[in-house]
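Narrative summary of target 7.
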Amino acid sequence: MLKRLLAALSVPLVTPALSVLLVLPALSVLLVVPALAPSPADAAARTTVWHVVAPGETMAGIAAAFRLRVADIGRWNQIVPPYPVHVDETLRLTPPVVQLRDWRTRVEPVTPAMVNWDARKRCPVTPANLRKVWVSYIDLQGAYHDGSIIVRRDLVTRVQSIFLTLFRWRYRIMAMAPMSVNMPGETDMSIVTAGYNCRPVAGTTTWSEHAYGTAIDINPLQNPMIRNGWVSPAAGTAWLNRSRYRIGMIHAEGAARAFASNGYYWGGRWNSLKDYMHFSVTNR
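Modeled conformation, tokenized:
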């Protein structure tokens, strides 16, 4: 399932004078244009087109680069004047099949069954002190979903604010629970955006911040952890060049700001290792 998804998100690039199709690893722009020279019909001929906003870009500049109208891009992405854009935002460059629904959220108590609670493990936070937070998100292909994440109960409001900001910025998230609904058939849980997990830090007996419900991992595949040359998840090696701006990647001047403004620290700023997916309230 994951291989099929990544294949579907490969990037055809067609120059005005050529009619060749080049598949590149970048997940930033997908353009399909006729073999003829550019014309006003180009926009209508494009399918599944998007652009990831990089530093210094504006809506006007993006529209000019793709020979589109600012108002059209704004309407397709449900962004109103003066059409602000944000680094790491993914803009749709063709009309959507359906409009995005409004962002929504709700909170549920966490039962022992939800987290496979086992008292013998002596996890540092009990289910009673956790909450399941439901939030709307946009997946890599631009589809609307409702996903859930479990965090410590006193962090619920912060987490809701973070995901509302990411949604407003049209930042895309690969997958969230429940996977049976949001990505049926996918068995690789290393790609899931998630919070609580009663486990130690890899290779130690020290509890991870995830075991306290105080850490969140966002798009692990596109934002891997790097320690002494070891990359996790392993497939994340395709996203090691952090100077690029591709769908689902996190940068300090982009999506990381949604977390920083809510009191979360980013593992992408660490010196001993880089954990680009990881945000926590303790900076651990």
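The radius of gyration is 20 Å.
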